[in-house]
Design goal:
Elements: E1 2-6, H1 34-42, E2 46-50, E3 68-72, H2 77-88, E4 92-93, E5 96-98, E6 107-110, E7 113-118, H3 123-133, E8 138-141, H4 148-157, E9 162-164, H5 171-181, E10 185-187, H6 193-208, E11 217-224, H7 233-244, E12 255-257, H8 260-267, E13 277-285, E14 292-300, H9 303-322, E15 328-329, H10 331-337
Parallel strand pairs: 3-4, 3-8, 5-7, 8-9, 9-10, 10-15, 11-12
Antiparallel strand pairs: 1-2, 6-7, 11-13, 13-14
Pathway: Amino-acid biosynthesis; L-lysine biosynthesis via DAP pathway; (S)-tetrahydrodipicolinate from L-aspartate: step 4/4
Protein name: 4-hydroxy-tetrahydrodipicolinate reductase
Catalytic activity: (S)-2,3,4,5-tetrahydrodipicolinate + NAD(+) + H2O = (2S,4S)-4-hydroxy-2,3,4,5-tetrahydrodipicolinate + NADH + H(+); (S)-2,3,4,5-tetrahydrodipicolinate + NADP(+) + H2O = (2S,4S)-4-hydroxy-2,3,4,5-tetrahydrodipicolinate + NADPH + H(+)
Length: 341
């Protein structure tokens, strides 16, 4: 489930800063227990709910496009979800991937396709022959933050268009590498289409109404699976928007939740999604405490990101085929195209 709550009330009741914290050493408590979340949602609010179907339960999209796609690395949960979504969309899954994760016999089966897994150290030797065999190939990268820049340099060296879904790395260098090589690419730290649309709306509000929340106190909580070590790029972007709106907030104040027990009991993450979720909440309180605003988006599972990534790959393929002069894109460009499934 993905939901966004926007609420303003003369008297907001119990605010985040008044609730007891399970960890006293942290200034911000874990703010969305099941009970408190229900209490907030029962107050008058404008609620936009966007339900995300699983890849398996979603109907197959019309097969308007078909091109080869290599998912690097499909041994991870996100990469596997993208590979499944690509097959469901009618794309040709290239039976090669690169990963340091060991798999039995060096092979992995996804949607009846046997994927041969190679160590990342072999990518520079193997990729040229794959590019030759699949001239319309697009690579989707879901590897690790430390590999972002090296992978991008290799894709650019080979003239290989790619969709970078991996977060982290030196993003400024990443963009410069692609621009210098004049390669087609979609780069975005957030591939969830509806979340990107929400972020775009935040950026518009920040640009058009600078200082609108001057003096307000901001409290931020973001919860992801324990394996996600870095701070969410989406959270950073939303915080940046609030800063432009006049809120004073340092990224160190963000309440980063990675403990499964706290996620289950305090945040309210369903147990089956502890290993794959993204719960964000941004709570604003006026200087006198009489007004509060709350922005929230909760994502369970990975299908929203997988489908968005496939849409990005399709978008990139059409740009390449049309010979578009612009080469570097983000998910905002994909959204503006309006051709998502």
């Amino acid at each position: 489930m993905l939901s966004t709550n926007i609420a303003a009330h003369p008297v907001a009741g119990i605010t985040l800063r008044q609730r007891p914290s399970p960890r006293p050493r942290q200034p911000l408590c874990l703010a969305i227990s099941v009970a408190s979340l229900r209490q907030r949602m029962s107050r008058p609010a404008m609620v936009i709910a966007l339900a995300s179907q699983t890849t398996e339960g979603a109907p197959a999209a019309p097969r308007k496009l078909s091109f080869p796609i290599l998912v690097n690395s499909c041994t991870g949960k996100m990469g596997k979800a993208v590979a499944e979504a690509a097959v469901s969309a009618g794309l040709q899954l290239v039976p090669i991937s690169f990963s340091a994760m060991a798999v039995p016999d060096g092979k992995l089966e996804i949607c009846n396709t046997e994927i041969h897994i190679h160590d990342p150290s072999e990518s520079e030797k193997i990729l040229p022959s794959i590019v030759e065999e699949y001239p319309d190939l697009i690579v989707v990268d879901y590897t690790v933050p430390d590999a972002v820049n090296d992978n991008a340099e290799l894709y650019c060296k080979l003239g290989l268009p790619f969709v970078m879904g991996t977060t982290g790395g030196n993003r400024q260098l990443l963009h410069k590498t692609v621009q210098d090589a004049n390669i087609y690419a979609v780069i975005s730290p957030q591939m969830g289409k509806q979340v990107v649309a929400f972020l775009a709306a935040m950026e518009i509000m920040a640009a058009q109404f600078p200082g609108a929340f001057s003096g307000y106190k901001l409290e931020v909580m973001e919860s992801h699976q324990a394996t996600k070590l870095d701070v969410s790029g989406t959270a950073k972007a939303v915080i940046s928007c609030f800063q432009k709106l006049g809120v004073s907030f340092d990224i160190d104040e963000l309440n980063l939740v990675r403990d499964p027990e706290e996620q289950l009991t305090m945040v309210g993450v369903p147990e089956e999604y502890l290993a794959g979720h993204a719960f964000h909440m941004y709570h604003l309180t006026s200087p006198d405490g009489t007004v509060s605003f709350e922005f929230q988006h909760n994502v369970c599972g990975r299908s929203i990101y997988a489908e968005g990534t496939v849409d990005a790959a399709m978008f990139l393929y059409t740009k390449i085929q049309s010979g578009a002069s612009k080469k570097l894109y983000d998910m905002i460009d994909v959204l503006r195209e309006g051709n998502m499934r």
